[in-house]
Design brief:
Blueprint lengths: L2 H19 L12 E6 L4 E5 L12 H11 L5 E8 L9 H10 L5 E6 L4 E5 H4 L11
Parallel strand pairs: 3-4
Antiparallel strand pairs: 1-2, 1-3, 4-5
The protein binds zinc ion.
Zinc ion binds next to helix 3.
EC number: 3.5.4.5
Cofactor: Zn(2+)
Family: Belongs to the cytidine and deoxycytidylate deaminase family.
């Protein structure tokens, strides 16, 4: 993908993640998160965290984003952007890293951005080295 087009896609992903952030349901932690992924087909899907009074049922933005894509019939992704309004950039939790490793290639990039325009990126492999993936089941 040409660099300009790639930059536009990342900007669109940040906007989609921020929009999803605004819909997050996080009355217990007040830790609002939005995520947006670019599918291999070039579509943008998004998700937000959804908490529950039974805390263990809470689902993170990253996993809801990936589930949204699957609902729409897409299972392959180019990249994932996560948006928060935390001053400290926070990486995906362990559960999300496992789900990300299921659907994104090891070389795919995951980026966390915040409202201060700060960002940090990792490859999937950096987030979860030696991940257990479908390849381990053959
Ligand atoms: Zn998570």
């Amino acid at each position: 993908m040409p660099k300009v087009q790639q930059t536009l896609k990342i900007s669109a992903l940040k906007l989609a993640a921020k929009k999803a952030y605004n819909n997050a349901y996080a009355p217990y932690s007040n830790f609002f998160v939005g995520a947006a992924a670019l599918t291999k087909a070039g579509n943008i899907v998004s998700g937000c965290n959804v908490e529950n009074a039974s805390y263990g049922l809470t689902v993170c933005a990253e996993r809801n984003c990936i589930a949204q894509a699957i609902i729409n019939g897409e299972q392959e992704f180019q990249t994932l952007v996560i948006y928060t309004e935390q001053e400290k950039l926070t990486p995906p939790c362990g559960a999300c890293r496992q789900v990300i490793a299921e659907f994104l290639e090891q070389s795919a990039v995951v980026t966390v951005v915040n409202h201060l325009e700060q960002q940090i990126s990792w490859t999937v492999k950096q987030l979860l080295p030696d991940a257990f993936t479908p390849k381990d089941l053959v």
